[in-house]
Design brief:
two-stranded antiparallel ribbon; globular; ten-stranded mixed sheet; 14 strands; alpha/beta; 2 domains; binds nicotinamide-adenine-dinucleotide; about 20% strand; Isopropylmalate Dehydrogenase; 12 helices
Length: about 375
């Protein structure tokens, strides 16, 4: 008997809503044409959840999504909720999912689709055939470290502070994921830190070196984050797998997105492994809710659609569907269809929903 796949879809805010409609089209196609047994449940997160439930992520929602086989999320945030207290903002909903489900390993592949070679601001020879993977630690570091806050020290003078903290255990588990992943690729791993000035990342580097002894076939290198940002745009093909901390990974992957042509092209998978060996996972585009283009049909849904492909690869061990989705994206791009963010002369500009329809035509 076929296993029912329980998937939670959290569209969130801004363009998260629009790209989720396109994600649903692809999932519906998979149910109809590949005969997959999928139970899709839509849930609230971010501003959408604040408006309805008064909180960016309710405990009931967290409970339901944690029981699903995989989670797909659009994006959260927007100007409407920016003046709320920090703990009540939409982004806290997303961080809560990552933390509560312990989704510590974030995979952010930056792959240049051949037809998009002219959409990048870099020269074609620099990015042709680019296929790199950034593995970002997602549940530790400065985004979660305590103490944090803003406090008054005297009249008209406040102190804002965050704590960059990593434990050996936190580093070790992301190191193992990174080395294991490097073993399945070109066996080259670059660890990015700032060990020259930050003690927590000095520990990061030491644990990476210690872990490398268990992986004699992987060539480990180290790079300071400032140099890595520069090298990513100078010669990105020198990298294969990059492993780095929460904040450095956040910044470097946005930088890497422009190698691929647009932030709207970068999917991601966030994975956690429980004590009993079960995996929990959430799939989402790297970009945010893009309030500047929300509601205008301008959002590129491809990062979201590629995230569905990653879900089939990582959560359901179905490489075939991953390949089918990637191929459909590549062919639609080859045929010249482009959302505005990846448009170049001579190509056909399409809206968010038109792009989703083109993907469906190709899947068919
Ligand atoms: P953003 O990623 O939303 O947008 C940055 C720029 O990229 C904008 O010009 C936007 O129009 C463009 N862009 C992003 N995705 C696109 C797509 N699919 N197609 C076409 N263009 C796209 O980042 P921002 O503007 O810094 O943040 C906006 C809001 O999103 C903030 O509230 C922020 O906190 C939130 N945010 C959420 C996430 C998330 O949900 N994972 C990630 C980053 C930012």
């Amino acid at each position: 008997m076929k296993k029912k796949l329980k998937i939670s879809l959290l569209p969130g805010d801004g363009i998260g809503q629009e790209i989720s409609i396109e994600a649903k089209k692809v999932l519906t196609w998979l149910v109809k044409k590949i005969d997959l047994d999928i139970e899709l449940n839509e849930e609230l997160v971010g501003g959408a959840s604040i408006d309805t439930l008064g909180t960016p992520l309710s405990n009931e929602t967290l409970d339901r999504i944690s029981k699903s086989d995989a989670i797909i999320l659009g994006a959260v945030g927007g100007p409407k909720w920016e003046s709320l207290d920090f703990e009540k903002r939409p982004e806290r909903g997303l961080l809560k999912i990552r933390k509560e489900l312990d989704l510590f390993a974030n995979f952010r592949p930056a792959i240049v689709f051949e037809p998009l070679i002219n959409s990048s601001s870099l020269k074609p020879e620099i990015i042709k055939d680019l296929d790199i993977l950034i593995i970002r630690e997602l549940t530790g570091g400065i985004y979660f470290g305590q103490p944090r806050g803003i406090e008054k020290i005297e009249e008209d003078n406040h102190r804002g502070f965050n704590t960059l903290v990593y434990t050996t255990k936190e580093i070790k588990r992301i190191a193992k994921v990174a080395f294991d992943t490097a073993m399945t690729r070109s066996r080259k791993l670059c660890s990015v830190d700032k060990a020259n000035v930050l003690e927590s990342t000095e520990l990061w580097r030491n644990v990476m070196i210690e872990t490398s002894r268990e992986y004699p076939d992987v060539e480990l290198s180290h790079m300071y984050v400032d140099n890595a940002a520069m090298q990513l745009v100078r010669d990105p093909k020198q990298f294969d797998v990059i492993v780095t901390t929460n904040m450095f990974g956040d910044i470097l992957s946005d930088c890497a997105s422009m190698l691929t042509g647009s932030l709207g092209m970068l999917p991601s998978a966030s994975i956690g492994i429980t004590n009993t060996g079960d995996t929990k996972a959430m799939y989402e585009p790297v970009h945010g809710s893009a309030p500047d283009i929300a509601g205008k049909g301008l959002a590129n849904p491809l990062a979201m659609i590629l995230s569905i492909g990653m879900m089939f690869k990582y959560s359901f061990a179905n490489e075939a569907i991953f390949e089918i989705i990637n191929k459909a994206v590549e062919t639609v791009l080859k045929k010249g269809f482009r959302t505005k963010d990846i448009f170049s002369n001579g190509k056909t500009i399409v809206s968010t929903s038109h792009m989703g329809d083109k993907i469906l035509e190709e899947l068919n």
